[in-house]
């Protein structure tokens, strides 16, 4: 463990803990990321005492300013490439939107058990007498090895402490390709409705992290199966399902969209291209018609979808800037290259498309390639109520 504490800042925090006679621990995401081999620049330090006074002492030694957030009982400093946050051990939950004054003077274990997941409750001692010792009371290391998202307490308690954690569970599962343990999954389903009290910005932040994960369909399937998707993004839920008339069905647009999203995610880490995959067929439910003798059609879904983009972005509190315009353009044009390839190509049609796509022609081609999904799936799963 000590080899992961090579940065000189840890020695200084350790010396301060020794001088002040208080215990200090690196905790949370930083420790988790050591075991996941994902070096992290954000370090949380928990102090069994006054976190702000401790931070000020460290800041003085390092000769850097300390930002104090009195209401939150936290203090932050930047040193070289690191951002370090200090807090006194808490008896209360680490809510992501805590406005309540925090209750300090907890023990380390009080602090650890009020955290969201066992993998985020690991601590490393920094006091000189125990420097580098790992404290893992809830089996977080075992859960990292088993790739498991589990809550330290009864899931009902952990999730009702902060309902954003139901999104975080799914985000970590998707980001790290971990499984959510059965009890936690039941806890998510039981608490899903409470997501309504969480701000849209925080929900969208987690949603974007799901979208940026290596295989985003993992997260979206969990959102769907737990009943969260219909609460946070009902238009996407509406893509789900297959209608059959006269023995003719159409493809399930939800699973098709997830395939397109996974496909594009193999070629780009750009959040907005991934959003264009999510939204490319968003107007299919609204434009769906059954034409006797012909079958299912979705005429004009690309135009209607493009018109829906600004409202969707506004509702989800995504930026209403050129990123939104890019997504709108890609949704609008997503059928054009395929149509071109199926018709006799005229120079003027190619020129028109190149003109309309402009600098985004490469992005459009990525979306079109991702949109070629061969398997047609008919899913008969029950829609969560
Ligand atoms: N935490 C929590 N409940 C929350 C948010 C955070 O218990 N709703 C705790 C966890 O111990 C977490 C730590 O606070 O590890 C730091 O939170 P944050 O910086 O938001 O997340 P990380 O776990 O560091 O992960 P990431 O940086 O990927 O968001």
Please, could you describe this protein's structure?
The protein contains 20 helices and 11 strands. The model is unreliable at 375-381 (pLDDT under 50). The chain folds into 3 domains: 1-143, Beta Polymerase, domain 2, CATH 3.30.460.10; 147-232, Orthogonal Bundle (Hydrophobic Seed Protein); 235-370, Hypothetical protein af1432. With 385 residues, the chain is α+β, with helices and mostly antiparallel strands. α7 runs parallel beside α9 (200-211) and α7 runs antiparallel to α10. The chain is elongated and about 80 Å long. The strands form 3 sheets. The chain has a 7-stranded mixed beta sheet with strand order 3-4-5-2-1-6-7. A two-stranded parallel sheet has the order 8-9. 39% of the residues are buried. Bound molecules: cytidine-5'-triphosphate. Cytidine-5'-triphosphate is lined by residues 28-29, 44, 94, 96, 115-116, 120, 162, 164-165, 168.
How is this structure best summarized?
The protein folds into three domains: 1-143, 2-Layer Sandwich (Beta Polymerase, domain 2), CATH 3.30.460; 147-232, Orthogonal Bundle (Hydrophobic Seed Protein); 235-370, Hypothetical protein af1432 (Orthogonal Bundle), CATH 1.10.3210. Helices cover 49% and strands 11% of the residues. The protein has helices at 8-20, 29-35, 51-62, 108-113, 140-146, 155-161, 164-176, 182-191, 200-211, 217-225, 229-232, 234-237, 253-267, 271-279, 284-287, 301-315, 322-333, 336-342, 347-357, 361-370; strands spanning 24-27, 42-47, 66-69, 74-79, 82-88, 123-125, 134-135, 148-149, 179-180, 289-291, 295-297.
């Amino acid at each position: 463990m000590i080899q992961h504490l090579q940065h000189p800042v840890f020695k200084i925090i350790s010396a301060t803990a020794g001088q002040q006679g208080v215990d200090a621990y690196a905790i949370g995401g930083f420790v988790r990321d050591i075991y996941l081999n994902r070096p992290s620049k954000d370090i949380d330090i928990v102090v069994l005492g006054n976190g702000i006074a401790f931070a000020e002492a460290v800041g003085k030694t390092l000769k850097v300013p300390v930002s104090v957030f009195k209401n939150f009982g936290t203090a932050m400093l930047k040193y070289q490439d690191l951002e370090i946050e200090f807090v006194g051990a808490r008896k209360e939950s680490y809510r992501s939107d805590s406005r309540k004054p925090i209750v300090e003077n907890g023990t380390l274990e009080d602090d650890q058990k009020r955290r969201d997941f066992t993998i985020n409750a690991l601590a490393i001692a920094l006091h000189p007498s125990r420097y580098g010792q790992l404290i893992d009371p809830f089996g977080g290391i075992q859960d990292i090895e088993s790739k498991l998202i589990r809550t330290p307490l009864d899931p009902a308690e952990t999730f009702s402490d902060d309902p954003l954690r139901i999104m975080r569970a799914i985000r970590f599962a998707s980001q790290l390709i971990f499984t959510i343990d059965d009890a936690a999954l039941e806890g998510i389903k039981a608490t899903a409705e409470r997501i309504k009290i969480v701000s849209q910005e925080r929900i969208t932040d987690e949603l974007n992290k799901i979208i940026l994960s290596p295989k985003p369909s993992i997260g979206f399937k969990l959102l769907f199966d737990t009943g969260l998707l219909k609460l946070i993004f009902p238009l996407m839920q509406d893509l789900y399902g297959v209608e059959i008339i006269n023995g003719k069905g159409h493809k399930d647009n939800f699973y098709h969209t997830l395939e397109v999203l996974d496909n594009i995610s193999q070629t780009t880490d750009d959040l907005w291209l991934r959003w264009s995959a999510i939204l490319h067929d968003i107007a299919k439910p609204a434009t769906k018609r059954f034409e006797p003798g012909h079958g299912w059609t979705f005429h004009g879904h690309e135009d209607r979808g493009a018109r829906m983009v600004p409202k969707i972005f506004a509702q989800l509190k995504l930026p209403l800037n050129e990123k939104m315009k890019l997504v709108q353009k890609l949704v609008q044009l997503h059928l054009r290259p395929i149509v071109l390839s199926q018709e006799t190509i005229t120079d003027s049609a190619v020129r028109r498309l190149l003109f309309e796509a402009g600098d985004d022609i490469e992005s459009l081609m990525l979306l079109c390639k991702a949109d070629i999904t061969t398997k047609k799936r008919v899913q008969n799963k029950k829609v969560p109520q």
